[in-house]
Description:
alpha+beta; Arc Repressor Mutant, subunit A; two-stranded antiparallel sheet; 3 helices
Amino acid sequence: MPHAALRVLVILASQYWGGNNGTMALTSLYAQRFGLNSRDTIYRSLCELKQRGLILQTRQGWKSKRHFALYALNWKQINNRDGQPLNVAEPCDRSKWREWKVNTSGRS
């Protein structure tokens, strides 16, 4: 896994406190605090983590600064979808990361 993707995963996981899975965000301004200055690097890292099954996007972001994408850790129960709390937490798929296969074309 590229080091930037691992850094993004740690940043998202550090926001998790138990009942907020599905509401973690990583805006470019917030990522700058952790040394990630390139939007392209952030985007590629998030795509890599989604491909590997480590995170799940629970809300699509818009170009508006007030409506950003939200993510969930895929190994914990999802408590929120589209920014709203769920009455019953969705079960997680702890084995999804095992399905990831290395792309033999040289790009992941």
